[in-house]
Amino acid sequence: MLTVEDFKSGQVLLIDKPLNWTSFQVVNKLRWHIRQKFDLKKIKVGHAGTLDPLATGLLIICTGSFTKKIDEYQGQIKEYTGEITLGATTPSYDLETEVDEFFPVDHITDDLIYKTTGQFIGEISQIPPMFSAIKMEGVRLYNLAREGKTAEIKSRKISIETFEVTNIDLPKIQFRVVCSKGTYIRSLAYDFGKALNSGGHLSALRRTKIGEFSVESATEPLAYIDAYLS
Q1: Can you give the pLDDT of all 230 residues of the chain as single tens digits?
Q2: End-to-end CA distance of the chain, in Å?
Q3: How many angstroms separate the CA atoms of 19 and 58, rounded?
Q4: Do strands 12-17 and 88-89 pair parallel, antiparallel, or not at all (unpaired)?
Q5: What share of the chain is helix, strand, coil (3-state, %, to 5)?
Q6: Residue 182, by phi and psi: left (phi above 0), alpha (psi -120 to 50) or beta?
Q7: What is the pTM of this model?
Q8: Which among 6, 16, 39, 52 is annotated as catalytic?
Q9: In whole angstroms, how far apart are CA 131 and each of 128, 187, 194?
Q10: How many CB atoms lie within 10 A of CB 36?
Q11: Phi, psi (5° rounding) for residue 169?
Q12: The Cα angle at residue 60 between residues 155 and 186, in degrees rounded to 5
């Protein structure tokens, strides 16, 4: 069983983030239970890479002195699996907001889908979604978006090592992506739909790997608390 010194000196916790939890909620929950169990006034706890509330999967949580390693973990290659729904867009590029426009899909063939993935492999330019945690003049973009405001967002260079379509059942396609830090899979879904002369939004997302860490070794937060912090 882990001791208070273990958590203070530093632990890497592999957490499988549930649907509808924010990454911040996971950190807060674990921090609170660590403090309660060991009667601590404070302890450093942080995560290495945000997952949106509608995404599930691997979240690396660092405690104590290991919070200094967060930047190192954030910079590692990540793997995701998920689903893109073609023929419709949303302002958030995912299911957080309602569909705002519909597009035809009758012209989309399996061959066209497979061929189009090639446009998104390698170093590409990508514009992050307006509904993102990026700060502009000290304000999170998603706060502006929820107020109905817009802002000019600069494109950024990202790298996609793998973009594999694993199943096609139009208007939905399943995929696997291996990509660099800073990649927005929601933007990839939107841009992919556009490249198909249609529209697209992300309808499911799961982070499966960060570097050598796999979600197969991760535990859901409440199960982790029951096992180690209750």
Answers
A1: 889 999 999 999 999 999 999 999 999 999 999 999 999 999 999 999 999 999 999 999 999 999 999 999 999 999 999 999 999 999 999 999 999 999 999 999 999 999 999 999 999 999 888 666 667 667 776 676 676 767 677 889 999 999 999 999 999 999 999 999 999 999 999 999 999 999 999 999 999 999 999 999 999 999 999 999 98
A2: 11
A3: 12
A4: unpaired
A5: 30, 35, 35
A6: left
A7: 0.93
A8: 52
A9: 8, 10, 18
A10: 12
A11: -145, 75
A12: 30
d(CA 86, CA 223): 36
The label of the residue with tokens 């967002």 reads 153
Query: Shortest CA distance to 40 belongs to which of 5, 11, 69, 67?
Result: 5
Give the max Cα distance, the chain. 62
CA gyration radius, the chain: 19
Is 169 tagged catalytic?
no
Calculate the CA dihedral of residues 161, 155, 138, 42 and round it to 10 degrees: 0
Question: C-alpha angle with apex 20: 49 to 96, nearest 5 degrees?
Answer: 90
* Three-class SS of 202-225: EEEEEEEEECCEEHHHCECHHHHH
Extract the tokens encoding 105. Answer: 């899909």
**Encoded tokens for 227:** 């096992």
Q: Which two tokens stand for residue 88?
A: 């419709």
Q: Answer for the pair 181, 191: CB distance below 8 angstroms, yes or no.
A: no
Question: Amino acid letter at 115?
Answer: K
Single-letter residue type at 187: S
